[in-house]
Amino acid sequence: MNRRQFLVSSALVSGTVLSGAKSKLRIGVTDWNLRMTGQVEAVGTAAQLGFEGVEVSLGRKPVDGKLPLDNDELIGKYVAAAKAQKIGLAGTCLDILHVNYLKNDKLGQKWVGDSIPITKKLNAKVVLLPFFGKGALETRAEQEYVGDALKEYAKEAEKAGILLGLEDTISAEDNVRILERVASRNLKVYYDVGNSTNNGFDVLKEIPWLGASRVCQFHLKDKGYLGEGSINFPEVMNRIMALGFTGFANLETGSPSNVIANDMKRNLDFIRKSMT
After folding, report:
1. What is the mean pLDDT of the chain?
2. How far is CA 229 from CA 153, 199, 232, 251, in A?
3. Strands, DSSP E only, in the chain?
């Protein structure tokens, strides 16, 4: 941790925001929580609801041995939609890693490599690499295996200008061990405040400890509506913004009322108010 990160961390743990710290944080949404997984129409829906970006699923069922979004015509539709709606493609989710686990399936490694050029063509910057369920990182050996497996792909990501993001159920410290093992500026933590809270970690301490340089993106979620669960989102947003983080924080929220548009707008409005 450098001096700046130490000062930010110390100030935030004591509940103080550093004066002059500014954030260009943008709020996006996942296509799967819009219930529009892999649908170009998710771009327009996200824009209509007031989001600044949409996180795009790469798909779980291969088509002719390729990821579903590995299709130039479809990629072109996404790029055109984002331009027309004047929002960003916040990143991609390599959700096929829920099927081919990166910790023990060579095919999972192939998908990581394939995801990088797709994400670049979409003019996005981040690929989310998920580790959940049977694919969760449960041992130090699995963490080390994944780190070694990602060394080659991190180099490819560097050349393409793409960030690979680890989203998982382990601590910030364990994630940083993987980052240090890979030793690439293009492998970072995709920090999910809901997942970390549910696994017993203190997000208000982990976020400033990680610092902006080790996080590529955030997921914001809790049980039910934001603000009604156990997570103190005004303080979470305080920590994120005080870092000077300039990327996306994406809502990965459910729909308690089962009316997606209303619930997403409610959660978005709450987060925006929490940022003031």
Report:
1. 93
2. 37, 15, 8, 15
3. 26-30, 53-57, 88-93, 126-130, 163-167, 187-192, 215-220, 248-251
| 36/103 Cα distance (integer angstroms) | 28
- Please state, in angstroms and rounded to a whole number, the distance separating the CA atoms of residues 248 and 90: 7
1: nearest Cα among 171, 244, 213, 247: 213
The answer to whether 189 and 171 have CB atoms below 8 angstroms apart is no
Q: Please give the biggest Cα pair distance in the chain.
A: 54
Residues 6+ apart with CB under 8 A from 107: 100
Domain 3-274 has CATH 3.30.1300.10: no
Cα separation of 169 and 69, whole Å? 27
pLDDT value of position 110: 97
Segment 37-82, tens digit of pLDDT: 999 999 999 999 999 999 999 999 999 999 999 999 999 999 999 9
Q: Are 111 and 155 a contacting pair, CB within 8 Å?
A: no
Model pTM score = 0.91
d(CA 101, CA 62): 15
Where are the domains positioned within the chain?
Answer: 3-274
pLDDT per residue over 89-122, tens digit each? 999 999 999 999 999 999 999 999 999 999 999 9
Q: Please give the radius of gyration of the chain, using alpha carbons only, rounded to the nearest integer.
A: 18
Quote the tokens at residue 33: 């929580």
**CA 218, CA 142: separation in Å to the nearest integer?**
23
Work out the number of other CB atoms within 10 angstroms of the CB of residue 75. 21
Q: What is the pLDDT of residue 23?
A: 54
